Amino acid sequence: MKRQFVLVFTFVTALSLLLAACGGGGGKIQVATDATWPPFEMLDENTKELIGFDIDLMKAIAEKAGLDIEFVNVSWDPLLSGMATCQYDAAISAMTITEDRMKEFAFSEPYFAAGQIVTVRIDNTDITGKDSLPGRKVGAQLGTTGDIQGKDLGAEMKSYDDIGLAFQDLMNGQIDAVIADNPLALGYIAKNADKLKTAGDVFTDENYGIAVCKDKPELVEQFNNGLKAVQEEGLIEDLVAKWLQSNQ
Q1: Which of 4, 78, 208, 211 has the largest count of CB atoms under 10 Å?
Q2: What 3-state class would DSSP assign to 118?
Q3: At what angle do helices 53-65 and 217-232 cross, to 10 degrees?
């Protein structure tokens, strides 16, 4: 009888560990984000809690999909490398779906269309768009689409861990322009309307998606199901009104 109990106990314990390792059985799903990209992800200055478009969206998707998630705030480069090695289960961080990234990890269906735009100081008349950037000192967040685009355009790039520092350097005259996602750039311009403006039009066509560890294809399906449900309820439009239109 005692031996039978030990065998049953051992089996149950092993099964519990297996389920936890597979992401079932109630284990939390770690979702990485780089909270330096307002209004999509940022830290509330008062509560120090994560807030933003992506945070609200991910919480809603998780609720619809019946997933227990926890956010991990990590800088951009470690976020990308952590996703490639499945250190995190998923990531939502205004991340553009690209062919190179799809080689490293999986993606959900797109949830937001964005694009790169150039921001300059309000008194700048020399830079009129992306074609004016070759040879100019241009800031972007390290490893982002803006950083890649700037190098391709022949700009003298200065890469930042925090995009806010790039806009600060721009206002202080340390660099000539910043390349960043359109919604983010408009947010900074709205807060500094007497100092910053856009130059030219949005010049890329990009889509944000939720990154998922390649070892967890079931998560992609769960996220897609949750995303479809919140889209049908009009949540994306509500979040645009809350986080984007209110900042412009």
Answers
A1: 211
A2: strand
A3: 110
Fold of the domain spanning 116-204: D-Maltodextrin-Binding Protein; domain 2 (3.40.190)
Task: Please report which confidence band the pLDDT of residue 7 belongs to, taking 50, 70 and 90 as the band edges.
Answer: very low
Q: pLDDT tens for residues 93-132?
A: 999 999 999 999 999 999 999 999 999 999 999 999 999 9
Q: State the Cα–Cα distance between residues 110 and 33, nearest whole angstrom.
A: 17
For the stretch 139-196, pLDDT in tens is 999 999 999 999 999 999 999 999 999 999 999 999 999 999 999 998 899 889 999 9
How far is the CA of 240 from the CAs of 53, 192, 237, in angstroms? Answer: 8, 21, 5
Q: Are 150 and 100 in contact (CB under 8 A)?
A: no
CA 83, CA 111: separation in Å to the nearest integer? 19
